[in-house]
Write a structure and sequence with these properties.
mainly beta; SH3 type barrels; 6-stranded mixed sheet; 1 helix
């Protein structure tokens, strides 16, 4: 897959199953090898990521297509935030005494 790096900035990133991930903010390059190694993605989907972080770097080996959008492999539960455990399931110190 060959394209100009500058064409990737601002593209939306989706998984192959159509789940929105975020927007390409920067491209990580390995200059000596003349290849892209990752995509810095910002404006993350809050349902998939902890929104406190500014962004993530997606390994370029996950990219399957680049055109009007960037498609990446759907890696099961790779990005999903851990589910919050309801309070009723938390064990308090009082219960242990």
């Amino acid at each position: 897959m060959q394209s100009e790096v500058s064409t990737m900035f601002g593209l939306n990133v989706y998984t192959e199953r159509g789940v929105y991930i975020g927007k390409v903010n920067d491209v990580v390059l390995e200059v000596n090898e003349k290849k892209v190694t990752g995509l810095a993605v910002s404006r993350l989907n809050p349902e998939m990521f902890d929104t406190v972080k500014a962004g993530v770097v997606i390994p370029y080996r996950w990219v399957t297509a680049v055109a009007d959008v960037v498609l990446i492999r759907h890696v099961k539960d790779q990005f999903k935030k851990p589910e919050e455990v309801p309070e009723e399931y938390n064990i308090s110190n009082e219960d242990e005494q």
